[in-house]
Amino acid sequence: MRWNGGDADHPDSVDSADHADIPGSGTSGARLALDGVGRRYGAGESAVTALSGVSLRVEGAAFIVILGPSGCGKTTLLNLVGALDTPTCGTVTLDGADLAGASRRRRREVRRRTVSFVFQSFNLFPALTAGENVRFGADAAGRGQARETTERLLAEVGLGHRADHFPHQLSGGEQQRVAIARALATGNPILLADEPTGELDFGTGVQILALLRAQADAGRTVLVVTHNREIARVADRVVELSSGHVVADGPPPDGSIPVSDLRW
Ligand SMILES: Nc1ncnc2c1ncn2[C@@H]1O[C@H](COP(=O)(O)OP(=O)(O)OP(=O)(O)O)[C@@H](O)[C@H]1O
């Protein structure tokens, strides 16, 4: 699902023809493939193997939870999918584009057109208002129609009336809703969220999950990292990691429930 089209008047406006080979241009959801992926940090005796032999496929829109205990490699996996990092071995492809062997410039372009990020600690720009934070997402991706997109998305996350407020004037849950709106403003088909409810109380966390779930239902590929097994129950698919290996991949092992039935 595309959130906005081109805008010839926008200075960063991108002609889609220039980006025909960039993943995410004109797709609904994403086609992602990891084959035999490993990631080691450091060398010699102090080397750490964060991921080993990870293979998985994602086709189109879905709400996918990457589940596992602290240190099992969840963030490392998200960084590889998000073209922030490259594997030590194996291949990562996004809509057919090889990320493992890509130059930094190529990965930057893939990030710009394909993925957006939501973090545990919100990571809003403190000196920018909620509206400016959201607009930053639209501008960074060069999607055009930034003002309209910002207004629409802030309203969609229930914060249309707080556009001029700074992050320190918002609650944690409100800040995370702004962060999600900023991610959506990119118009990119993949949304990557690293422990997005980690700093929120239960009720607020449920609101955020409902918002993320709705993005998958609207056609995005949403990957949420968590150590919380209950959260995994609202996913379409759960990829469980243990010590850098995929140990399960399928429907929620403890059974599926709607977001409204969550308890943790
Ligand atoms: N830059 C790095 N240098 C060395 N080791 C690293 C680096 N980044 C991560 N690691 C190690 O790789 C392993 C996996 O880390 P990762 O952050 O991916 O796990 P995680 O499952 O996301 O953990 P958490 O839930 O605590 O955030 C851990 O043992 C970690 O210490």
TrEMBL record:
Coiled-coil boundaries: none
All copies of domain ABC transporter, residue ranges: 32-263
One Pfam entry name: ABC_tran
Region named Disordered: 1-26, 245-264
GO CC annotation, single: plasma membrane
Domain of life: Bacteria
Stretches with biased composition (Basic and acidic residues): 7-21
Record SUPFAM superfamilies: P-loop containing nucleoside triphosphate hydrolases
SMART domains: AAA
CDD domains tied to this protein: ABC_MJ0796_LolCDE_FtsE
Listed Gene3D superfamilies: P-loop containing nucleotide triphosphate hydrolases (3.40.50.300)
Transmembrane segments: none
Name of this chain's protein: Putative ABC transport system ATP-binding protein
Source species taxonomy: Bacteria, Bacillati, Actinomycetota, Actinomycetes, Frankiales
